[in-house]
Amino acid sequence: MKRDRLSKDADGAAQEPASGAVPAVDTRLLVREEGVRGYVGEFRRKLRSGELGSLPVVLAVIVIWTVFGSLDSTFLSAQNLSDLSQQIVGTGMIAVGIVFVLLLGEIDLSVGSVSGLCAAIFAVLNVLHGMNEWSALLVAVAGGAVVGLIHGFFFAKVGVPAFVVTLAGNLAWNGLMLQVLGTSGTVNIPAESIVAELYSTVFHSPVAAYATAAVGVGLFLAASLLDARRRRAAGVPSRPVAEIVLRTLVVAVLAFVTAYILNRYQGLPLALLIFLVLLVVLDFVLRRTTYGRRIFAVGGNIEGARRAGVSVPFVRMTVFSIAGTMAAIGGLFLAGQIQSASQTSGGGNLLMNVIAAAVIGGTSLFGGRGSVWSALLGALVIGSIQSGMNIMGVSNAVQFMITGSVLLAAVVVDSLSRRSQKAAGRA
């Protein structure tokens, strides 16, 4: 089947194709020309082709909050929602690292042990050996990065499957954590420690929450306008100003409603602010940098990425290092939450929760599709389920079964979405 090409005159201007030929038209231009009707049609097409995006997890949050809110009004109280925003930070941080690994189509089973190890390193260096708390903090985070780099080396250079490497790491780093903690098994972290304060500090002034919301909305609007201008300058389709304004209004409503709820209790938690800033930075890295595009390329088609000149081993090693770094940061926030590092740090259902958060949030297990915001949405779903069931007095056994069912449902949606995309020629 031959493709018609536009011929050019002496000035290089595009001319009409030969008679009978149909010029190629970007579907996004047609959608925007048709107005509301075009956007509705585009939405239906995306649903049919399996391009669900964050829709399932947003609907899940609405359903979960509606159910638990109707069963017990305490769930939707400002205090519970504010506490929830702090409690999901540690899990969400680790889940961000899992998102990076999943984008490669791989898995990291060591993040729980790595988070516990790094929390133990900080506690022992700072509390038992008197090291400056900032120095101990940097050593702990660097330790997570090095551990991730070791995993990446064996995976990318030696060729050991990531599943095996990180499973071995899960055992080895847990053992090293026990060795670091020593015979006491538990090191208490003072309330005035930097780790504890990063988690517990709250900005009580209402101005802090509303100013953060305003800055976030302003940055979103500026980034959207800049992107539209850049695309117009390159001669490619861009969002019209009306659509950008509408999207900004939606973001503004979400941001200021969140600020209002936080201010009704205590105010803006520092832990939540740090989490959101990290999400914005890492989202920029993934979507706006060459390195981020290479991650998607390797996860979507490794052979195609290799032929395009992408250094696959470098991408793999650095991604696992990022996962280790985020595990360390998340582990420190979890340690600050309970103000201790113990033999149970990084254990229990932490690994299950962080993987579930990444997958439930919309990051594909098959690689090449996802967003760091998946970690926030997924952690919100997991945290909401646990918070609601704790309020209702549901046993841990039932909580595990329900969380596992939600994870299975998310994977089923991901699989069906991928199948629909293949059928539509988009995968």
Please outline the helices and strands.
Elements: H1 27-33, H2 36-48, H3 55-71, H4 78-103, H5 111-128, H6 133-158, H7 162-181, E1 186-188, H8 194-200, E2 202-203, H9 206-233, H10 241-265, E3 268-269, H11 270-288, H12 290-300, H13 302-307, H14 312-338, E4 340-342, H15 350-360, H16 373-392, H17 396-423
Antiparallel strand pairs: 1-4, 2-3
Record the strand order, biggest sheet. 1-4
SSE succession = HHHHHHHEHEHHEHHHHEHHH
Number of strands: 4
Shape: globular
Report how far the terminal alpha carbons are from each other.
Answer: 22 Å
Strand content: under 5%
Describe this structure in words.
The protein is built from 17 helices and four strands. It has 427 residues and is mainly alpha-helical. A two-stranded antiparallel sheet has the order 1-4.
What's the short story on this structure?
By secondary structure, the chain is mainly α. The chain has 17 helices and four strands.
Features:
single chain; 427 residues; mainly alpha; two-stranded antiparallel sheet; two-stranded antiparallel ribbon; 17 helices; globular
